[in-house]
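Bug #77: duplicate submission created two jobs. Keeping one. Sequence:
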Amino acid sequence: MVAEVFTLNNLFVGLLFFLTASFHCAENSRQRRKIMHWGAFCCGLGLCNQHTLVLYVLVIVPWVLSRLHAVKELSFLGLVSLGFCFIAGFLPYIYLPISSYLSTARWSWGDQTTLSGLLTHLLRAEYGTFSLAKAETSVSLNRMLQ
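Kept job's structure:
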């Protein structure tokens, strides 16, 4: 059984909206702190799955930070702990070079044993939206020039 990328992305979008609404309705700082840490973790985990989630994260994160600032709960240590939760969401990426090195991956998106191979995969350089747009643009330009 495999989780489909776009369906899983919809799950993360829904989860982020739920956490955002929960954060907005939180009654005290303890609830807000718990929700924002789960939100940071889910943002990182969701971005592992689908990079388009960044469109939601770029709106939600500044809003959460402004709300924290408004209620005087924004601190340096709070930002550091949120950063750790966000980075913890990216932990599934540790599996990629290990499985590539051990050749245990059921499906492979290239060689991730090197840093350049891992970055190629992380940035979706071989199969991502930007490479499709590049190919479409070059085809259109070739047609126009003929």
